[in-house]
Amino acid sequence: MTLEIYWGAGSPYAWRVLLAAEIKRIPYESKLLEFSKGDLKTPAFLAISPRGKVPAIRDGDFTLGESLAILAYLDRKYPEPPIFGKTPEEAGRIAVAIADFESYVREPVALVNRWVFGDKPKTPEVDDARTKVIAEVERFEARLGKGPWLVGTTPTAADIAWFPTLRGFIRGGVRNEARATEMGLYPLATKFPNIGTWVERVEALPGYDKTFPPHWR
Q: What does the pLDDT look like over 156-167, one tens digit per residue?
């Protein structure tokens, strides 16, 4: 049976799974769900994803949620090209890069994005989150000064884990240029040229266009 990928447009974590499937050239059936229509709360979807979250996959009788767990599953089932490293050293560095995002970026960037995409006054919490995000993005910029991808010479789970959020900064600038600029995240390629070039590199990957959030076009 064909792998089914359940996703929602604009979900950075669902985008990870679509990118991995395209990089690995895995045949799959795209199942785009709409948040506003309650698609994530239907009995049929809850049978696949009990928490009612995307991404989720169904591969025959097997179902799985959580983006990083899905990436690990896909890499074991479809080992070429590998996205979790070709050597123990690469695997370790990829794990660290993903942990950096999950531990130090995920929460503060959520605060920043809520402010950028919203209309509420800025709070001290937003300023604190901005400081944390900028520090981590600067670290990311420095890493990309050492090579075309975060680890090794090909895209890995590290790039996949970070890309949707960083590409979202460009989207933030399109939606609310003044606020994104005030946060120091826009224009992304001007402020962080290595990241800008890396974004272009990801966008040039075969199949990338199929993963792009349709409502961003």
A: 999 999 999 999
User: What is the per-residue DSSP string for 131-146?
Assistant: HHHHHHHHHHHHHTTS
Comparing C-alpha atoms, which of 56, 60, 45 is closest to residue 2?
A: 60
**Please, which residues have CB within 8 angstroms of residue 138's CB and are 6 or more apart in sequence?**
192
Q: How far apart are CA 93 and CA 147, in angstroms?
A: 14
- Whole-angstrom distance, CA of residue 62 vs CA of residue 95: 25
Cα–Cα distance for residue pair 67/48, rounded to 1 Å: 14
pLDDT digits (tens, 9 = 90+) for 8-53: 999 999 999 999 999 999 999 999 999 999 999 999 999 999 999 9
Domains in the chain, ordered, with CATH?
3-77 (3.40.30.10), 88-212 (1.20.1050.10)
Tokens, residue 33: 């769900």
C-beta contacts of 60-63 below 8 A and 24+ residues apart: 60/1
The whole-angstrom separation of Cα 154 and Cα 169 is: 23
Q: Is the pLDDT of residue 1 over 90?
A: no
Of the chain, the percentage scoring pLDDT greater than 90 comes to: 98
User: Quick one: CA torsion of 50, 16, 150, 75, rounded to 10 degrees?
Assistant: 70
> pTM here?
0.97
**pLDDT tens per residue across span 180-211:** 999 999 999 999 999 999 999 999 999 999 99
Helix (H) or strand (E) holding 159: helix 157-175
Answer whether 17's CB lies under 8 Å from 57's CB.
Answer: yes
